[in-house]
Specification:
The complex is a heterodimer of chains A (179) and B (346).
Chain A: H1 2-17, E1 51-54, E2 59-61, H2 62-66, E3 71-77, H3 81-94, E4 101-107, H4 113-122, E5 131-134, H5 139-143, E6 150-155, E7 160-165, H6 170-178
Parallel strand pairs in A: 3-4, 4-5
Antiparallel strand pairs in A: 1-2, 1-5, 3-6, 6-7
Chain B: E1 9-10, H1 25-34, E2 55-56, E3 67-82, E4 88-89, E5 96-109, E6 114-128, E7 133-139, E8 142-151, E9 168-177, E10 200-211, E11 214-225, E12 228-233, E13 236-244, E14 248-260, E15 267-279, E16 283-284, E17 287-288, E18 294-306, E19 312-321, E20 328-329, E21 331-345
Antiparallel strand pairs in B: 1-2, 3-4, 3-5, 3-21, 5-6, 6-7, 6-8, 8-9, 9-10, 10-11, 11-14, 12-13, 13-16, 14-15, 15-18, 16-17, 18-19, 18-20, 19-21
Chain lengths: 179, 346
């Protein structure tokens, strides 16, 4: 009887663990090959042009973000604890070392420039080395297929060099050093 | 009333195959067991709005009972967060962030002092900001537990000897299974996340003491996540790497009072509780990412109604994160409202 119960319990466990690919994580590289010269969100593609207002109501485009710089970094924030940690790391450990790179925090959750400005101020990012973009139409979010923590690096020629979660900033630093 | 009745859990484990993981899970299992405690319950729920949720609750089968079935509903309302310095920050204007969880659990007595349980949450994320809204739902992370009752609490009405003061002691282990939707699944937004995507093994210790009509409990747990491979983030394939979340420790305590209605009839119990949760920094390919861990302290209260045989019980609870500096770090401040019904099979 004991073994029957254990078998039933094991069967229940197995049925539950049959869902979700987190149960057996894959470490294989499944990135699709990129067609050189194409426009998209993948590393190696050209970044799509955009036009977004910052919290000072100035318009920022892809061209203006790269003008006179080696590249531009776009960090997507929803003003959450994880975002706060990433932004703090960006501010203290990354941005100061690259004065010739533009750093942008992209607020993709606020519906107005005013709300984005309030959120930035509440989180201590209303000024300084970062420009805050209010992506109210989600154009940047959609073109980079971004979500919380997504960090995009575009070089001066408009090619995406990185598009992934910020993690610990190591990858971003490596890519910035390659610019 | 045990804390497990009122406090949700958040968890997530990893594959039990050494060829999949850099760190052999058996070593991690042993480490977790040796390190002492993961509790039978009282872990706190992880963020729903930004960081994934999915909670489950481990169950205790009462002594002399065969099994217990439990169904609970929780609403977790997010209201800002503690930043890295422990300062409370408000959510963006116009935001309304909630996670709802329906948790089904079954506990079964395997032998006189052994019991096993499983808890499966179903999670709804309901997030509204001034510029975006999202409503998603899916299975959360599942918890399976094995418990051993080391010492029974006689639940004395009067202390007659020193032995009457010895608490009931239960030890056990819980395994969190990443059955929820994690950032490493085929999702497009952080709003879709219902689990953390990692296996975790907890060692648990529960001390309970009843001196009628009062009762008290202390729950301790220590858990370790298993490192895993990641090749996808929010649906986008990335260069593969390995990631591990930091070890997690939690402690909680409760004080309760039970009022028996009439002469030995139905009873009503009330309790207050405190909980502490800490998770160490994450690691990427073995390298620690400073300041990625978190901490949370919270207070709660609960009411329980049980029938005369204590086979049916109803409960309602509230857990509150203090929105002031120093009560947490890197973690959302939330209120958790819960209701549940439990049936004990004798």
């Amino acid at each position: 009887m004991f073994f029957t119960k254990m078998a039933l319990f094991a069967a229940l466990l197995f049925s539950i663990t049959a869902c979700g690919d987190n149960l057996f994580p894959s470490g294989s590289d499944k990135r699709a090959p990129v067609v050189s010269g194409s426009t998209g969100s993948a590393v190696g593609q050209n970044a799509a042009d955009f036009s977004v207002s910052d919290i000072n109501n100035s318009t920022v485009t892809l061209a203006s973000s790269l003008s006179g710089r080696k590249g531009a970094v776009f960090y997507f924030t929803m003003w959450c604890p994880i975002c706060d940690g990433h932004m703090s790391s960006l501010r203290s450990a990354v941005a100061p070392g690259f004065p010739d790179v533009g750093f942008y925090l992209v607020d993709y959750v606020s519906g107005t420039v005013t709300d984005a400005a309030s959120a930035a101020a509440a989180n201590g990012y209303s000024g300084g080395m970062f420009a805050i973009l209010a992506d109210t139409s989600h154009s940047l979010q959609n073109s980079f297929q971004a979500t919380m923590g997504t960090t995009v690096l575009v070089d001066k020629s408009g090619i995406i060099k990185m598009n992934e979660d910020y993690r610990d900033g190591t990858r971003l630093l490596a890519e910035l050093n390659r610019l | 009333m045990g804390l497990q009745s009122v406090l949700p859990t958040a968890t997530r484990p990893s594959p039990l195959r050494c060829n999949v993981m850099k760190t052999c899970p058996l070593i991690s299992v042993a480490a977790a067991l040796l390190s002492g405690a993961a509790i039978l319950s009282a872990n706190l729920s992880f963020a729903g709005s930004c960081c994934g949720g999915g909670s489950a609750t481990t169950l205790n089968v009462p002594k002399y009972a065969k099994a217990v079935a439990d169904l609970s509903f929780e609403m977790e309302k997010y209201d800002g967060f503690w930043n890295q310095d422990g300062v409370h920050i408000k959510d963006p204007p116009g935001s309304d962030l909630n996670q709802y969880r329906m948790i089904a659990g079954v506990g079964y007595r395997l032998a006189q002092n052994w019991q096993a349980s499983i808890s499966v949450p179903y999670v709804w994320n309901d997030n509204k900001y001034s510029g975006v809204s999202s409503n998603t739902r899916d299975l959360g992370d599942t918890t399976v537990s094995l418990l051993y009752e080391l010492h029974d609490d006689p639940s004395a009405w009067k202390v007659r000897e020193a032995a009457d003061l010895i608490p009931g002691v239960t030890i056990g282990a819980s395994l969190l299974l990443p059955t929820g939707v994690s950032p490493y699944d085929s999702v497009t937004s952080s709003f879709d996340v219902t689990g953390r995507g990692f296996y975790r093994l907890d060692g648990n210790l529960l001390l309970e003491k009843t001196l009628q009509p009062f009762n008290a409990s202390i729950a301790l747990s220590y858990g370790t996540y298993f490192e895993r491979s990641v090749n996808r983030e929010y649906g986008k394939y990335v260069e593969p790497y390995r990631k591990s979340l930091g070890d997690r420790a939690s402690a909680s305590g409760s004080l309760g009072y039970t009022y028996v209605m009439g002469s030995g009839g139905d009873s009503i119990g009330a309790s207050i509780n405190y909980a502490f949760l800490h998770e160490d920094d994450s690691k990427y390919s073995g390298k620690t990412y400073d300041n990625s861990g978190f901490a949370k302290q919270s207070f709660g209260a609960a009411l329980t109604y049980a029938n005369v045989d204590s086979d049916w019980s109803l409960r309602a609870g509230w857990n509150h994160g203090i929105q002031s500096k120093g009560w947490g770090r890197n973690f959302p401040t939330t209120d958790i409202f819960s209701m549940g019904v439990r049936y004990v099979f004798h």
